Amino acid sequence: MKILVTAAGSYGDIAPYTGLGAHLRAAGHTVTLATHDTFAPLVRNAGLRFRSLPAEQSGRGAAGGRRAMLRAARDFIRDLGGGLVDAAEDGPDLLILSTTTAPLGWQLAEALDVPTLGAALQPAHPTRDFAPVVSGARSLGGRGNLIAGRFSLRMVDRLYADAIADLRERLDLPAATPAAVRARQEAARWPVLHGFSAAVVPRPADWRPGLDVVGNWWPHHTDEPLPPIVEDFLAAGDPPVFVGFGSMAAGEGERLGELAVAALRRAGLRGVLQSGRAGLAASGDGILTVGELPHALLFPRMAAVVHHAGAGTTAAGLRAGIPTVPVPVTADQPFWAARLTALGAAPAAVPFAKLTAPRLADALTRAVSEPSYASAAATVARAMATEDGAGAVLKAAERVAERTG
Questions:
Q1: Structural domain containing residue 77
Q2: Domain-embedded: residue 117
């Protein structure tokens, strides 16, 4: 079966699909991952075919305020729709769609008459259990959460409206509103597999059939060990603390590096700083700065992790069974930070806007000195070890093939 996986966004939005794609390929399927050119090496290193999708230009529209940002987002989504059409020119047998690409992918699937599966990294469907994940961590009550969730989907449909109109015209499809297309998908109980652990976010009881929580699909990485410089640093003392902000805080590396070192010194801890998009960098006794390294190899060697609470990094810390100090910046990060705290695997989050060396030091001291945090993380890690998220997607894909074959 020829499978086209589509994903758009930053590193954390793409990397899990390399592991998912590698699992599908190992089962004998031909797998193409369509995403931005920046991630072409990541895709090819996983043994997958790569197709290019347009990339959102950093900061496009940011200087013009909210309206300009929305305009820029709509323009990007329009470009993305055209990129998906081009990526599918080989005639896939199945489309696997991320949350960002799904509203566009439905139009493509209709034109090509091929089935689709949703593969989501966040819980986006309305529920009474929690408010939309991009709205922050605060619950609005059961009814309020549900209303907010439905409103959030209407806002998504408005954002995609122009792109969907263009795409349906290009594909010679009859005109249809985004809401109408979404309603058809819901009525057909479109299957969406959610790539996070039920031990972290249990499946809401009010979700319709077809929405499943299956466990994480982890980024693909080779069997290469950690670099010698990292191994030497780890062997030179007690387990250090990881500090990284992923794709967040661009250009703030010097300030954050100084802040992180001050916090580590205050807490009496060693640290591994991952440069990331921020350009985090520092040096000195007990401090090592590294580039991109597999969290699966690095995190189990840490005493704790400090990060922005993105979905993937949150899961990697829990998988390693170590405490976290979440420093959420935006979007769904406060949601995941709140989940870490609710699970007992992290002290209260330190919002990025309020981050100081003393606050970070205090949170780190609690995280590494109070055994309950490591114990809670280890409990979640054991639950995660029983899950096979990629295997669940493979089974779903092959069921689709049997029904349509």
A1: 2-216+387-404
A2: yes
Domain match, 206 and 257 both = no
Residues 344 and 365 in one domain: yes
pLDDT of 60-92, one tens digit each?
A: 444 456 677 778 888 889 889 999 999 998 899
CA dihedral 60, 64, 67, 71 (to 10 degrees): -30
Q: Tokens at residue 208, please?
A: 């319709």
> 177 and 49 in one domain?
yes
On whether both 122 and 195 belong to a single domain, the answer is: yes
Residue 249 belongs to a domain: yes
Confidence tier at 252 by pLDDT (50, 70, 90): confident
Identify whether residues 393 and 374 lie together within a single domain: no
- If you average pLDDT over residues 105-118, what whole number do you get? 96
The predicted pLDDT at position 90 comes to: 87
